[in-house]
Amino acid sequence: MNVSRLRQLIQILAFGLLVFGGFINVDLTHYLPVCSCTFNDAKGGSCFLAGLQCILTKPFDQYPLDNWWPLLRLTKWILYTVLFFIILNKAWCGWLCPFGAIQDWLTILRKKSGIECARFSWLTHDKLKSVKYILLFLLIILSVGIGNSLFGLPRLTEDLHVPMCQICPARPLIPIFTGDFSQFFINFKSTTKIVMSTLGMTLLGLVLVGSFVKKRFWCAYCPISAFTSLFDNLGLMQLKKDGQRCTKCGNCSRVCDMEIREIAEERDRENIVTQDCMLCMRCIEACPEDLALKATFLGKNVFASSFEGFMARQCIKAEGNRER
């Protein structure tokens, strides 16, 4: 089973549906908490973080106990978002995310250009792990602070509305695929908007360059990754390891786009979905030991490592290299 080829195909299909779905009247916004840019008019579904920011911006007094509608809306958002990520776990990031697919295509372009992949040191990697949680925290605090006075401080300016969307690199980039360049600009309407839109455009440049030289660069800092990491141990989709079968060859960590060393080093814990894992299953493909690594859904094996499968993939890879 060539999981990498299957993943690439699903990424293309998901990208087409979520980025261009609006052209055929597809809108998954009210059914699934997808993460497709809200500012893309042709979207097939809106980013759930944009919805969360809008909900958090509402003043507390708009959630009275005698008015069930706002509370029902918030409860609905919580329930269907939690259910979605319990079912998929981190597979959303690895298989369906449009911005993740763009990063993978940049990696393919880099490889074809013959440029070596950049890697962070383990120390740098560990230090940067907290960035996505800081962004998620700021997203929540800033959104709540727009509609409410926090700690006796004045409310924040409305110009900070949907703060994460204002600096998200996907906002100016995703609409371009549909021919829409309207989000690719610096907003001069106020000082706040100048600062936020400049940050957004700067971040886009950094992420595009970073994703070209380093695999899945943005995923290490994405607040959606921070949110989905809450379901690492609850998700129905799991990545499991049998430490007794592992020979510590290190293949798994070497092919990991997120440079997760725990995959190779962990011996005791069975579930090894970590905060940065995106369940792409490349580690399983690279493992030569029978059943040392496996992806499961509801406890049933979906894909497992095997010596036979490993050798078959090596032969295909060698044949492809000879043809080139």
Quick structural summary:
With 324 residues, the protein is mostly helical. The chain is 51% helix and 5% strand. The longest helix has 23 residues, at 191-213.
Structural account:
The structure is a single chain. With 324 residues, the chain is mostly helical. The chain folds into two domains: 3-227, no CATH class; 236-323, 2-Layer Sandwich (Alpha-Beta Plaits). 51% of the residues lie in helices and 5% in strands. The protein has 15 helices and three strands. Strands 1-2-3 form a three-stranded antiparallel sheet. A hairpin with a 2-residue loop joins strand 2 (293-297) and strand 3 (300-304). Helix 2 crosses helix 7. It is globular and about 60 Å long. The mean pLDDT is 90.
Could you name the key traits of this structure?
single chain; 15 helices; Alpha-Beta Plaits; three-stranded antiparallel beta sheet; 324 residues; mainly alpha; 3 strands; 2 domains
List the helices and strands and how they pair.
Layout: H1 3-20, H2 48-57, H3 68-88, H4 91-96, H5 98-113, H6 122-128, H7 131-147, H8 163-167, H9 170-173, H10 191-213, H11 223-228, E1 237-241, H12 251-255, H13 262-265, H14 282-286, E2 293-297, E3 300-304, H15 307-323
Antiparallel strand pairs: 1-2, 2-3
Helix pairs in contact: 2-7, 5-10
- Shape label: globular
Q: How many angstroms does the end-to-end distance come to?
A: 23 Å
Largest sheet: 3 strands, antiparallel
Oligomeric composition of the shown chains: single chain
Rounded mean pLDDT score: 90
- Tell me the strand percentage band: under 5%
Topology as H/E string?
HHHHHHHHHHHEHHHEEH
CA-based gyration radius:
21 Å
Helical proportion, percent range: 40-55%
Number of domains: 2
DSSP strand count: 3
**Biggest β-sheet: strands ordered side by side in the sheet:** 1-2-3
Low-confidence stretches: none
Given the structure, what is the number of helices?
A: 15
* Class based on secondary structure composition and strand pairing: mainly alpha
